[in-house]
């Protein structure tokens, strides 16, 4: 499946049972809600998906399960976050074997690679596969920035590097990328609290977090702004912002899983060493979630806009 690299692509949470096994029943419940809301792709095994705690076999199970369940309705991407080039190439091979439509690829984990090392890493992974690739550029959390000059080298060498998950937190970077590369490098914003701003500045899509609990509202914002109904998109986005801020937090996994509980789309089960929220921290997150649900907006028929 080719990927258009546009629209809302949930970075879905990984669901666990009380005994710390994959909870595929609840996982499918959430994926179905995403599809019903009109998302444009699914991203598995990212930060929000607790990637660093998943075994290789669990990642493969999630990929195969999602590919089978989605059944071609939207592309399925698996995140690659490995410590070595060898490991990343092997992960890309397995992703294709398991039916993934594309890859989201992080720079090397743990080792802070230099610019030349980072370029060679991405080139090696890209040249090892025919799957289309979205580079995840998040220097705030992962301490390695893929600069525009580095992207220039990568795009010239690797036709299957097609998109960037833009998480630099610098809104003007959307314009810089568009000025430099046009549509050769598609932009999906990766920061929930800058999502609408990024889309209005020309980003093509949104790899979203709170969409896991609020899929319809997330897709509505995207479709409304795309249709030029900016005022309506802004109104929903202003309501959404306190919830979106739960994503830019070290406890984003616990926060969003708690929100999924309140919207009937998940459980609080996380994989240790993570633990569910407790005490005043939990009380504050619940307050934000309950306030959001209490004032949840009535959405226009945004799905019709996708067919216009």
TrEMBL record:
Keyword Lyase: yes
Annotated InterPro entries: Aldolase_TIM, DapA-like
Keyword vocabulary terms for this entry: Lyase
Highest rank taxon of the organism: Bacteria
Family to which this protein belongs: Belongs to the DapA family.
Protein name: Dihydrodipicolinate synthase family protein
Organism: Geojedonia litorea
């Amino acid at each position: 499946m080719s990927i258009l690299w546009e629209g809302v692509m949930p970075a879905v949470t990984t669901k666990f049972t009380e005994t710390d096994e994959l909870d595929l029943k609840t996982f499918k419940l959430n994926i179905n809600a995403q599809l019903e809301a009109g998302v444009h792709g699914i991203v598995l095994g990212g930060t929000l998906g607790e990637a660093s705690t998943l075994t290789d076999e669990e990642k493969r199970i999630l990929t195969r399960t999602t590919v089978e369940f989605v059944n071609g309705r939207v592309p399925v991407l698996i995140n690659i976050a490995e410590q070595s080039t060898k490991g990343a190439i092997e992960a890309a091979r397995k992703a294709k074997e398991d039916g993934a439509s594309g890859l989201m690829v992080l720079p090397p984990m743990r080792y802070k690679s230099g610019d030349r090392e980072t370029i060679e890493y991405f080139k090696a992974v890209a040249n090892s596969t025919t799957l289309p690739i979205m580079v995840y550029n998040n220097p705030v959390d992962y301490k390695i920035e893929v600069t525009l000059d580095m992207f220039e080298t990568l795009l010239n060498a690797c036709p299957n590097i097609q998109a960037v998950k833009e998480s630099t937190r610098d809104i003007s970077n959307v314009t810089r990328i568009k000025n430099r590369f046009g549509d050769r490098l598609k932009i999906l914003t990766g920061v929930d609290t800058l999502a609408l701003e990024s889309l209005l500045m020309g980003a093509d899509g949104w790899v979203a977090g709170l969409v896991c609990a609020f899929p319809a509202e997330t897709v509505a914002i995207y479709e409304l702004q795309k249709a030029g109904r900016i005022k309506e998109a802004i109104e929903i986005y202003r309501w959404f912002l306190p919830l979106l801020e739960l994503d830019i937090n070290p406890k984003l996994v616990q926060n969003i899983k708690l929100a999924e509980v309140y919207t009937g789309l998940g459980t609080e089960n996380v994989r240790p060493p993570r633990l569910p929220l407790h005490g005043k921290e939990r009380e504050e997150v619940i307050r934000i979630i309950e306030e959001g649900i209490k004032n949840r907006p009535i959405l226009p028929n945004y799905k019709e806009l996708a067919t216009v």
